[in-house]
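quick q for whoever's on today - can somebody do inverse folding on this one?? i tried earlier but teh output was garbage lol. tokens:
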């Protein structure tokens, strides 16, 4: 079964088709890194802490990064002016 999935993936990649992704969220322990995958009408959004990566929903192409400044403002490095 694994071989069939791998070959199917290679064939789909050769045609340039985007992969499927399912919405989910989790917090990795012990580092406490929050990871979320959200599927919006136009984008699939992968969020890690305060950084959101946008991928076009139909093409799968990377479309941009959004950094949430409110999360950064709370960090110790931001308060020190680093």
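ok took a stab at it. sequence:
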């Amino acid at each position: 079964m694994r071989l069939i999935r791998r070959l199917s993936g290679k064939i789909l990649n050769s045609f340039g088709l985007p992969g499927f992704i399912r919405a989910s969220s989790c917090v990795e322990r012990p580092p406490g890194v929050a990871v979320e995958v959200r599927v919006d009408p136009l984008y699939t959004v992968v969020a890690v802490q305060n950084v959101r990566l946008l991928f076009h929903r139909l093409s799968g192409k990377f479309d941009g990064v959004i950094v949430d400044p409110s999360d950064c403002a709370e960090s110790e490095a931001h308060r020190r002016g680093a």
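fwiw Strands lie at 24-28, 33-39, 43-48, 51-56, 62-67. also Residues 2-14 form the longest helix (13 residues). so keep that in mind when u check it
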